[in-house]
Amino acid sequence: MRRSKAFIPTTKEAPSDATLPSHIFLSRAGFITQVAAGLYNYLPLAKRVIRKIENIINEEMTKIGAQEVELSFVTPADLWQESGRIEKFGKELLRFHDRKNNLFVLGPTHEEMMVDVVRNRVTSYKNLPLNLYQIKTKFRDEARPRFGLMRGREFIMKDGYSFHASTEDLDREFDSVEETYKKILTRLGLDFRIVEADSGAIGGSGSKELMVLADSGEDTIAVCSKCEYGANIEAASRSRRSHIPEAPQAEFNKFQTPDIKTIDELAEFFKIDAYYTIKCVAKRVVYEDTSEIVLFFVRGCDNLQEVKAVNATEALDIVDVTEEELQEIGLVPGFIGPLDQAQAKHVIDSDLKDAKDMICGANEQDYHFIGVELNILSDVAYFADIAEVNEGDICPYCEGELSFTKGIEVGHIFKLGTTYSKALKAEFLDENGKAQPFIMGTYGMGVSRLVAAVIEQHHDDNGCIWTKATAPYMVNIMISNIKDEVQVTAGEALYKQLQDANVEVMLDDRKERFGFKMKDAELIGFPYTVIIGKELVNGHMQIFDRAAKEKQDIKNEEIFEKIMELL
Ligand code: ATP
Ligand code: MG
């Protein structure tokens, strides 16, 4: 491609709402333009990157026998009613009527559609397993679209679905897709980690996320210092503490604690470790058509993990409540404890199940109970894992310590089981001629998010640094002085030679100043720029390596070989 003809509208200005490097540089370097919140146009450079990612995905998926399909983007709302997900997805689902007044949605994911494709077409265990996938635009009316391609409303996803006759076969396929996803991310040149993920309220037995490690990641992941364990903080668990602080010795009693409302004040008042206090986090829990106040109790040294709380209550969402709302149902904010369950539903963190020597609110203004033993509640209370792990907590699998890092979720693989096939009555006949629901897996990968993830992991102050597998063009030939015929001739010759060798090459033949063109090349992030300049007459060109930020002199006659070697 000749740069003079290329449509690459680079600019100095980043969009005013852009905070992440990928958003800033993809916009400034002319890869994308914004249409509206969460809607982007992919310009020629972005389209090339996307195609490369898609090609790698296709190659690797094909190797494990998955077959590519393409399902209609517009999907009948009926299918979503059948699966019962229309409410669960809520406002993220963009709904509209056609001229005959039929209700449709823009597909945010395609479980329902894929089950519909397979049901009544695959009818025997003999035709299983089956793994079908597509790479397709998705639409989710995200509450907070942001960060450019990272969280769009319209975005590209590779979504795959597998159908099995047994859970063993699903397990095998799940492992095989996990391996394939690893290969894809490795080929893309990304540093990533596979972590255990939240399986959500729809359950399922296994769920893993692929996280590209980057400081700007929206997800926090807990990783073990010793073993392979890693988990999204939404799903991370821990072992019981081995070093327990010294316990406050006291008989059960009610104690006056005037105006002592926070955990810090309480721990200070009694001169104890917050480990021995009980924190109440009151929330309004939202279900399909009702909501209620639920009190979540965790140790004072812990925090409530909201996704775990949503799962524990099988809620759609949980939202904050005001002190007034609590007072209305007879609660005393600042002094709420778990011993009196009359006013609201309680969920108590499992770590408190047999806790002793605890201090908690007495449900009475200015009073706390001391010397509390939680085992008296074991028959009446609901215990669940609702606490967020802390850095320094002990790994659930070994004695290593957990620490946090940030990740970008680029993939999610999930053992669905029979949730959808049962809801949509999709069955096959097993070996004994008995009808059984398909056992399913689902495998997503964010293609457009991957474009952003590459840049989040690979950039510097000057712009993008594409990995070899993702670069829109591998080589940029820079003719420093376009008026110098010798330089032009050499540039054109190398351009032709590289094109003939099927190298993706750009020829910067613009009548701009060298400094300007170099800045532009760095912003776009070509892995290699060949500089044809003053040294040409002395028999040299230069290769600028974008990632290493190094220039190397190469003899004119060796330049082609050298480039081929670098690629
Ligand atoms: P997130 O927690 O980031 O919202 P999700 O759990 O909703 O993701 P899935 O439904 O599992 O995501 O979708 C599969 C993949 O699609 C994700 O791993 C992610 O890479 C990508 N993806 C999801 N939502 C978006 C979005 N709004 N913009 C771009 N990519 C997305
Ligand atoms: Mg989401």
Describe the structure.
The protein has 567 residues and is an alpha+beta fold. It folds into three domains: 44-237 and 403-456, BirA Bifunctional Protein, domain 2 (2-Layer Sandwich); 253-386, Alpha-Beta Complex (YbaK protein); 475-566, 3-Layer(aba) Sandwich (Rossmann fold). The protein is built from 14 helices and 33 strands. Strands 3, 7, 8, 9, 10, 11, 12, 23 and 26 form a nine-stranded mixed β-sheet that branches. Strand 27 (459-460) and strand 28 (463-464) form a beta hairpin. Helix 1 (21-28) crosses helix 11, helix 2 packs across helix 6 and helix 2 crosses helix 11. The longest helix is centred in the first third of the chain and has 21 residues, at 167-187. The model has no long low-confidence stretch (mean pLDDT 95). Residues 109, 140, 142, 151-152, 155, 157, 409-412, 444, 446, 448-449 line the site of adenosine-5'-triphosphate.
Number of discrete helical segments: 14
Q: What is the CATH homologous superfamily assignment of the largest domain?
A: Bira Bifunctional Protein, Domain 2
Helix content: 25-40%
CATH class of the largest domain: Alpha Beta
Fold-level CATH name of the largest domain: BirA Bifunctional Protein, domain 2
CATH architect. name of the largest domain: 2-Layer Sandwich
What overall form do the CA principal axes indicate? globular
Query: Overall pLDDT, averaged?
Result: 95
Helix vs. strand class: alpha+beta
Which ligands, by name, code or SMILES, are bound?
Answer: adenosine-5'-triphosphate, magnesium ion
Number of domains as seen in the coordinates: 3
The N- and C-terminal alpha carbons lie at a distance of: 18 Å
Q: What share of residues are in beta strands?
A: 25-35%
Spans of at least 5 consecutive residues whose pLDDT stays below 50 are none
Number of strands: 33
Biggest sheet features: 9 strands, mixed
